[in-house]
Every structure is written in C-alpha cells, then in structure tokens.
Amino acid sequence: MQSIASDFHPELRRKDLMTTLISLLSHDQPPEVQDEAAFGLANLAKDFANKTAIRNAGGIKALVHLLDSADPDVKKMSGHALAVMLEDFASRTEIRYVHGLAPLLELLASEYQEVQEHALNSLIRAAEDPGNRVEIREINGVRRIIDFLTQDVPELHYLALMCLANCLEDVTTSKSIFEMGGLSALVKLLGAEDVRTKRNAALTLSKAARIERNQILIRDAGALPALLSNLAHSDVLTASNAALALAELGKSETNQLELGKLGAPEALIKNVSHDDVEVPRQCAAALASLCLNEIIRAEMVKANIVHSLMMVLSRSDPKLQSAAAMALGRLLQDSEGRFALTREPPGSGLQRIIELIASKDHAVCKSAAYALSTAALNDVSAKFWLCDELTAANLITDGFYDIGSAGTHPTLPRSFPLLQELKDAPLDKRREILLLDSTTDPYLAGLVSLVSSEGPLHARTPRQQIRQIASVVAQVLGGPAHDVSNLQAQSYKFKITELKLKLGSNVVPLGSVAQGTFYHRALLFKYVCDKVGLAPVTLVRGDYGRAWNVVDVSRQTLAPPRVATPAASAAPSTPSKLEKPAKSARTRENADKTSKDKDKDREKDKEKDGAGGGGSGGANAAGGMAGSGTPSTATAQGPQVTQPTTLVPIVIPEPVADEAPLSEEKTIVDLMFVPGRLMLIGSPEADQYQRLT
Questions:
Q1: Is it the case that residue 350 has pLDDT exceeding 70?
Q2: How far is CA 31 from CA 62, 71, 402, 403, 605, in A?
Q3: Cα(439)–Cα(652) distance, integer angstroms
Q4: Separation CA 1–CA 531 (nearest Å)
Q5: Furthest CA-CA distance within the chain
Q6: Which of 374-412 are b and which e, b meaning 16 or more Cβ less than 10 Å from the residue's Cβ?
C-alpha cells in the first residue's frame, strides 16, 4: 500500500475499512498479511480523525499484541504504527491501559536497528504522558534506556536521549538517575561525533540538573568544560542546549565559581549576539544564573557585561528581553553595576528598562520591574514609584519625592520624571507630588528638629517612641479621623488643591500640608523615623490612597539624631564644691518662688493667646495654618518651651506604659484613628486599616 498524504479521500475514513484492517492483525493471519495491515493502519493514522476511529475499534491493543511476533518485519511495522498513533494524547493513555509499554522496552534488545528505532519513537511519545513516565520507571524502563546508551548503536543514541529527557520530567526518576549510572553516560555523550547526540545529551543533562544534588554530581563527572566547548558549536541547537544546561547548573554556588574560572561569562556573552534567537535566549538565562554569585557579578561588571546586556535589550524577542533583564537586574544589585549603568548613553540604560515595563509580555514586564527595582536602590523615589514599597533599608532622605504609583493606567507616566521637570510642568488635576526636603521646607525642618531633640523620645521604650512619633504625625496632618464613615469624602483634596494653586506648582512640600490622609501620614512617619534613626520601618502603598507602615518592635532602636545640631562647648562633668558652691536654704527658697511666679505668668499668657490647649485633635484637626513666627510647643504636663517652627502647635504626649507583650513583633502603626495603636498584621483591625470596607 502506498503512503497516503494528509489530504484523505472520504472513502479512506470508512469505519468498516479500519475494522477490516484491524481484524487482519490477529495471530491466525500470515505474517505478510499482518505486516501489510499494520502498514495500512500506520498510513491511515496520519489523519487525526482516523486515529480516534482506530483507537475506538481496538487497534492499539491489536498492534501491541504483534510486538512479540517472531517475524521482525511485523515487529517493525507494528512499532511504526504505534509511533504514529501515539501522536494522539488519548492514545498515550490507551497504550498504558493495554500494557503496551513493557513490550516496547523489550524491543530495545532487538538485533535489528529498524525495530529499535520504531520502538524508541513510540517510547518518546509515550513518555510525554506523566502516567506513562511513572509506569516506565516502575517496570525498570529507565535503566534499560540508560543501558541502551552504552550499546554500540550510535545512530540511535539521539533517540534514546530524547526518550530519557522525557522520562526525567518525573522528579523521582531525576533523583535516582545517578544511581542508575545515567549521569556519567550523558556527560560522555556530550563529546559524541553525531551532532544530534550532542544536542540531546545537553538537553537531557539540563533536565537532570533541576535536582540540586545532581548539579554537583554532573560537575564532578566533567560536564562543565564539555558544555562550554559545545557553546561554540556551529549547530544552533547544540549551542542553545549547552547554554540551557549551563543555566541550570549555574544555580549552584560551587558551579558558579567553577564556571567563572573556566571563562563561562565571556563565552556566554559572545553568543548573546548570535543570529538565531534561541542561542541568545539560553545564554542570557545562563548569565542570569551566574549573576546570583557576588564574586562573578563583580567580574562581569569589570568585563563591561552591563553594556552587552543593554544591547541585548534592544532586540525585539520577548523571551530574550526577559532573560537579559533578569541577568541585568541581578548585576545591578551591587553599586558597581549601578554605576556602570549610569555610563550608558542617553536613551539607553535606565530609560530602556523603564520602557520594557510597558511591554505586553508579562515575563518581560516582571523582569524589567525587577531590574528597575535594583537599579533604583540608590534612587528611593523611583523605587517607591515602581514597587509601591520601601523597606527598612530604603531610607528616605531630603530630596525624596512621591509622584504616586507606576501602576498600569495608560495616562500614567511610563518613565520616572526628574523633580525639576515636575516643578516646571503646568498645573494639572492629578494627584499632588509630595516633596520631602527639610533644607527647603522650614515646617518639615522644624518638625524633624523637634522630634530629634534630646528629651521627648530618648530614654523611652520602642513602643513609646513609635506612639509619640505617630501622635506628632497625626497632629501635623489634621488629627485623628473620628468619623470613619466620612473617609470617602476625601475633603483633604480641597485643601491640597488650594495649596497647589497657592504655590503655582504640582509639587507640594509635605511640611506645608495641614490635612492629610493615609498616604501623607505613612510617608511622613517613615521620613521622620528614618531621620531620627528609629528603625526598621517599612512603607507600603495600597489601593485607593491607602498606605501604611510596618514596624518590627523587637528591633527598634533610637540612634543619635540624623539632623545637624549646633555644636555645644565642652563643659566639665559634675562640678566640685570649689567650682560651684552649694546654694543656701534662703537662696533656694527665693529661686523656687521666682520660678513659680514665672510659671503663673506663662499660664496667663497661654490662656490669653489660646495657643496651649487641647490634645492632638484641636486646631490641627481643622487644618489651621500657623502664623508667622515661632509657635510654642507644650508637653502634656509641664510649662511651654520655645521649639522650632512647625505648621501647627504640637503636643507631645507623655509616655504611656507598654501593654502586654505582642504575640507577633511586626505590626502596622495606626496614624489615622487612634494614633500610635499597633495592629498585628492579619488582624481584623489591620485588614480594615489597609483596605476599603
């Protein structure tokens, strides 16, 4: 019967035709008839509709029964027909149900290569089914395939390798391949003369290298030099599969150092400009694995690989862009890598990474976002725009500005603008840009100076320090929100709009904001804590204007103030009697009387001016602006003292004794409702604080 093309005549789809051919496969038929019938079914099975009909008519079971025939031609043609049938997913399940895998494995011992070839083709397709992979392992089929690799049939080794690669998708098989002698056989075949064997040996090793233990065993077997040699092979798949294996093996720290000594980074970077895109894809992935090692990263930066990866990002293939962006992101973890990025020409460097965030490919967006987040480690403003989170290590310093979230809305900026560009932009209806810079914002400087001064926060427990700073932040930005139902009114926006119009700019100094909501308060809290050295504090941006701070109470320490303070002249410690005689009883009595008179005068002045009353929800809650001059600041108990300029009068509360120990140490700080309240992450009150309900 002649071979039939895919364009089938309707008569060749007749069910009775296939039923007749299947009946001719029975053992009572002569071998010549069985051979021709199997050949006919193999040709009919090239049509997928016929595959279903043959399977439903019991054709797979009939073909499996012929695999133990004494006639080699019958075995060959039955194996060929099964290989064609197993292109169909349902047939792969069917062959396991009719116990056809064991007979196929038996054919590997045949003395005829054609029989072995068709058996291997059938096993390759069968092993694409997870259930069949388990079955092959349980009937000792994997060991038989590995043993076949040692036989003197080099023309078929590439097929056996493909079959083994499919079997290694089973984790249990991958874990036991070393004990079966598979790794040494695979490494040996990396140097085979047949290019198909070379490429499939590397592919199979890449599957085995997914198991961490195998990564070291493969290296010990001598695979690394052989794979690096195959990187330079003229065959595209040989080079790309070698890089694929190196990408998996490079996840081991020991292998990373070994590959660095062998010159792997240089060999890989040469291939990222290969004409066939599959080679650069895998080479970039291998570079990303090597970049996990700090020593290798430093060497790669010196070799100008940052520039090479930036050139790769200019290519249009999404998979290549994703792998290169991941490698670049890891290189930018270190300051040397970030500095190398700044030497890129205009339109490249950071700008190119930002452009990739707008890619329609999810993997490219994710890798580019990671690269930008590491590149922005020295630009906290850009990192907060991109990641919506600043960790305790990301200290907010003067000059920080918040333009909102990078988001996904088409009207949002696709690149991070410079502060001067934002200042020069005309007024718009978008959210204000918040600037934190105590060198140009006197109200913010006054607040930092107040909190940093000796007294209010020093000699307090961590939780007391948090509560006091939270109270100060709430007072400055409008006091507690007593009516939760009115949060959606967002009346603070009218105050912000008035301030933008008054300043004639979209950039608003945070110290000038008299009434703020979640994101204003969380940002100011993080800034103040970073300034005075209360750490660690995390800032997280949520949805719909929500933001919050996470503090680790167990690790809170108050470092010396970060703000500049006037240098005090040196003075001796406790004076001796000769230096400063003790006052007499009459002198002390007169001094006490004078002090009391001064206190009474201050109280009268305070009542007259109306500036000393109330708690945190007084004039602040109304968003009142302070007049010119230096306002006074009161403590909850005690006389007024002159303090640095702040937007509104501030009352620093007396410390309250800590409550019972928290069940967890990481908590969210309430800055809106009960300033200073600590809410455990995951608790109902924390969930309500983080999300609109």
A1: yes
A2: 14, 7, 82, 81, 119
A3: 24
A4: 87
A5: 135
A6: bbbbebbbbbbbbbbebebebbbebebbbbbbbeeeeee
Contact 120/155 with Cβ under 8 angstroms? no
Q: Quick one: tokens of 384?
A: 């907060």
Q: Please identify which residue in the block is written with the tokens 């092993």.
A: 127
Tokens of 88: 């169909």
Residue 19, both tokens: 């039923």
Report which of 667, 368, 683 is spatially closest to residue 538, judged by C-alpha positions. Answer: 667
Do the Cβ atoms of 214 and 182 come closer than 8 Å? no
- Report CA-CA distances (Å) from 411 to 228, 543, 666: 47, 17, 36
How far apart are alpha carbons 165 and 147 in whole angstroms? 15
Contact status, residue 380 vs residue 402, Cβ threshold 8 Å: no
Q: Is the pLDDT of residue 366 over 80?
A: yes
pTM above 0.70, yes or no: no
Quickly state the pLDDT bin for 8 (edges 50, 70, 90). Answer: low
Using CA atoms, how far apart are residues 297 and 327, in angstroms rounded to an integer?
Answer: 10
Contacts of 203 (CB under 8 A, 6+ apart): 161, 162, 165, 241, 244, 245
pLDDT digits (tens, 9 = 90+) for 329-342: 999 988 888 888 87
In which residue are the tokens 């990481």 written? 666
With tokens 């970039």, the residue in question is 284
Tens digits of residue pLDDT in 370-386: 888 787 666 788 888 87
Torsion angle of C-alpha atoms 56, 58, 59, 64, degrees rounded to 10: 140
Q: Nearest Cα to 671, choosing from 548, 564, 557, 576? A: 548
Secondary structure of residue 281 in the 3-state scheme: helix
- From 248-252, 357-361, 600-604, the region with the lowest mean pLDDT: 600-604
Q: 651-652 and 632-635: which strand pairing?
A: parallel
The structure tokens 């480690």 sit at 377
The whole-number pLDDT of residue 387 equals 79
Task: Give the other-Cβ count within 10 Å of 100's Cβ.
Answer: 24
Range with the poorest average pLDDT among 85-94, 576-585, 651-660, 675-684: 576-585
pLDDT digits (tens, 9 = 90+) for 515-524: 999 999 999 9
Q: What is the 3-state secondary structure (H, E, C) of 255-315?
A: HHHHHHHCCHHHHHHHHCCCCCCHHHHHHHHHHHHHCCCHHHHHHHHHCCHHHHHHHHCCC
pLDDT given for residue 460 in this prediction: 76
Short-list 169, 167, 159, CA closest to 199: 159
Residue 198 to residue 187: CA distance in whole angstroms: 10
- Closest by CA to 224, choosing from 203, 240, 202, 204, is 202
Q: What does the DSSP 8-state code read for residue 481?
A: -
pLDDT band at 411 (very low <50, low <70, confident <90, very high): low
Q: What residues are paired with 635 via a beta bridge?
A: 652
